[in-house]
């Protein structure tokens, strides 16, 4: 399913653990709830970047489009939830995003580059997880997740292209740093299921 996006597959350090996929299938109410939160946060991140970096024309263009698409995805997930009588509840954040963001450098333009690289990993991982889940879900949800692959893959590309555009030096080392970190966050066990959690912790 991800064969159309070889650069995305190569970018990610690993596939989602099978134990996470099984955990997701056992917690589809929570999956949809957290998915909705993720789409809303993604739109918010794009908007915050537009407010902070007003002098970056390409960033403004790409983040404006991304924010609109993420809000549309939120609306679509929320509509699915309502049709299934699933309440949209507050959820604590997973350790995934915080685990990446706490390593963002504080000086510019390094801060912007790190945010862009993290954005690329988040979008790429979301795309990979939708593809991993789709074959195992009911027809409606499977079609929906497959429909998200193209836009999530493009968001990954947008973030990565912006990171390269706004950096005055190669970013390979920084990508490698976050790649190692992302692999740990995805493969190490978690006690709470989330869209970007690791596999369940065995107690």
From TrEMBL:
InterPro entries, sorted: Ferritin-like, Ferritin-like_SF, tRNA-Hydrxlase_MiaE
Which Pfam families does UniProt cross-reference here?
MiaE
**Database matches in CDD domains:** MiaE (cd07910)
Enumerate the Gene3D superfamilies for this protein.
1.20.1260.10
Question: Coiled-coil regions in this chain?
Answer: none
Q: What is this protein called?
A: tRNA-(Ms(2)io(6)a)-hydroxylase
Identify the domain of life: Bacteria
What would be an example GO MF term here?
Answer: tRNA 2-(methylsulfanyl)-N(6)-isopentenyladenosine(37) hydroxylase activity
Q: Which residues form the signal peptide?
A: none
Entry's Gene Ontology BP terms: tRNA modification
């Amino acid at each position: 399913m991800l064969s159309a996006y070889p650069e995305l597959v190569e970018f990610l350090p690993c596939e989602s653990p099978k134990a996470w996929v099984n955990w997701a299938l056992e917690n589809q109410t929570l999956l949809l709830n957290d998915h909705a939160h993720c789409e809303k946060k993604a739109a918010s991140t794009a908007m915050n970047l537009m407010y902070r970096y007003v002098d970056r024309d390409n960033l403004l263009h790409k983040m404006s489009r991304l924010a609109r698409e993420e809000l549309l995805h939120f609306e679509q997930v929320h509509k699915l939830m309502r049709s299934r009588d699933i309440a949209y509840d507050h959820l604590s954040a997973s350790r995934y995003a915080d685990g990446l963001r706490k390593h963002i450098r504080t000086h510019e333009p390094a801060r912007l580059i790190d945010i862009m690289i993290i954005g690329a990993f988040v979008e790429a991982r979301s795309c990979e997880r939708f593809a991993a889940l789709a074959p195992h879900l009911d027809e409606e949800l499977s079609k929906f997740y497959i429909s998200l692959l193209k836009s999530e893959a493009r968001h990954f590309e947008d973030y990565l292209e912006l990171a390269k555009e706004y950096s005055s030096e190669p970013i390979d080392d920084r990508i490698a740093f976050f790649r190692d970190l992302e692999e740990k966050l995805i493969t190490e066990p978690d006690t709470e299921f989330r869209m970007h959690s690791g596999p369940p912790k065995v107690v």
